[in-house]
Design goal:
- It is a single chain.
- This protein is an alpha+beta fold.
- The protein has a single domain, classed as Alpha-Beta Plaits (2-Layer Sandwich), CATH 3.30.70.1060.
- It is built from 7 helices and 8 strands; from the N terminus they run βααββααββααββαβ.
- An 8-stranded antiparallel beta barrel has the order 1-3-2-8-5-7-6-4.
Amino acid sequence: MDFFVYSREAPGTEALRADDDLLEEHWAYMDRFAASMIARGPTFGTDRKTVTGSLHIVGLPSVDAVHEFVAREPNNSAGVYAEHSAWRFENLLGRTMWDFPGAADEPRFLIIARSDGDPETAAGARPVPPESLSTALRKELIVYGALSALDDAAPVGVALAAQGRDRQAVETLLEQGRVGLTFFPSIEIHAWEFGGRR
């Protein structure tokens, strides 16, 4: 099973983020999951410098395993994160971020759209099939998939990562791309970059 884990940064963790030993521990831990990783990387504020969180989309054998994945992650143990959101993930593109053929010099963004417990929205919280998206959006999609609850696999939203020259360009691309995100009451757009060893 694939799982989408988004960990939100705790305030005042800049010193921890700058700790080279902790960074190496984090990378070494993630190396253990490299074969099943679909995407990973930090999110940032509008300045694209202040870290706001961290994304990991990873294949794990069970819901218990995703809880263990979060609990044992070195940044989490050190207090870098304030909270975690975790869902089942259906990889609708059938590829990883490393398979993305786009140019490496354009900014990237992570978008999370959720029903937030609204029964009416949750009932229709399925993503648009990739083939129904606009050609322009499909060209910029890095990751695209359905989110569902850990416990009962009920649909809760859509997550995607896309490339564009800036946030406004990505918002326009989403509006014109027939992705249907306006259906969801909660939409987050984060500046994001590919993670991993540098």
